[in-house]
Amino acid sequence: MASMPVSVPAGWHARGQRVLARPCRSVSGAPVERALNAELWTRDGRRHIDFSARAGVVGHRHPQVVAAMLRELRDPRSSQACAALEPDAIRLAERLAALLDHGPTRRVALHGSDAEALESAVMLARRYTGRPALLAFSGSTHGHSHLTLAPSGGRHSHKAAGGAYPSYVHHLPFPHASLGVSLHETRRAFELLTQATIASSDIAAIVIEPIQRDGGILPCSSELLSYLRELCDAHSIILVADETRTAPGLSGRLLASGHFAAEPDLVVMGGPLAGGMPLAAMIGKAVVMDSVPDGLSAGEVNTLALAAAHAVLDVVEQTELCERAIALGRHWTARMHGLAPTRLTLDVRGLGAMRGVELRDSAGAPASAQAHAICDTCREQGLILQPAGPRDNVVPFLFPLTTELAVLDEALDIFTDALRRAGN
């Protein structure tokens, strides 16, 4: 599909620079004229393949999601905020509770944003346990509000400018071969922390991303999750899985934590759940969530977001998108393993449709400059990718589960050419 060239209105960039808070930038380089599935068309007449995660689970403007939202807008009962006891909210809570084992013993709290849901999970854990401390992991990203930046262990330019963060948040090294950190070292770090800084009886919760997306597409190991589950059970700590970037379905399971036998006590879902509409959810054990009698949220949700969430889940379930995530991921991996050798060493990894390739030079050092050059070249050729990882040497591929195979192959062809240029 092609788009007729439309000139960008003169002066818009300068106007944006004058009025918008920095950084003001566009991943596509020009205003978007049209979006569909994994593709964007901008007003300068260019077409882009969007593998930057912004297309979510079912792509931009999925027809089924658009139709559900239009029906909701036409419904006279539609409102900006409805009570959580509305039928659509109850039905959504039932669907989300069923994502975890023992659904009848689960509770669901609906929220208006990822940050609100995660902060509520931390608040709940602290009130339930009566303890102050929170553990998180290096390389993690849990949000951009003041309180969600505190457990975020990755490099965040605006975190350094945010001043003091709560002293009750502590970080453990995330164990992964690419980081040179073993599970033994993570265990040892916990032992040292609880010997010298805080007692295990002061820890309310451990928060972890089943897949660190911004940290460089680093999936947890089953051994790590089992260790954390045992640790939490032994010390009465709440285990929180932050799935705001992984669910529903992006990992090949509705919940990325579903890849592991160890089940969390609380799960937080966010933006992808409702196709980018303002809706998030916390799912957890009833015994924990019922311990706060005065509630866990404002008790109101956006009806348009509810409609979008139901439609997203319908598409995921009816078209078997979890299975498609696995198939697309396998195809991506096969293409990556078939690349011609260059002077760069590639470490290919990920789960489902959350994939990434880490670049190192011939000496084994992180190839950060080359990763940026590759992403810049890809963007010039119409493929939107953005470097990630603690050293910016990982190129993530975050494609919607509805991506057509021909589009994925086109994107991989663009990447292959950019890699050849950077690696020779």
TrEMBL record:
InterPro entries: Aminotrans_3 (IPR005814), Class-III_PLP-dep_AT (IPR050103), PyrdxlP-dep_Trfase (IPR015424), PyrdxlP-dep_Trfase_major (IPR015421), PyrdxlP-dep_Trfase_small (IPR015422). Keywords: Aminotransferase, Pyridoxal phosphate, Transferase. GO terms for molecular function: identical protein binding; pyridoxal phosphate binding; transaminase activity. It holds the Pfam family Aminotran_3. Its cofactor is pyridoxal 5'-phosphate. It comes from the Bacteria. PANTHER family: AMINOTRANSFERASE CLASS III. Belongs to the class-III pyridoxal-phosphate-dependent aminotransferase family. This is Aspartate aminotransferase family protein. It comes from Bordetella genomosp. 2.
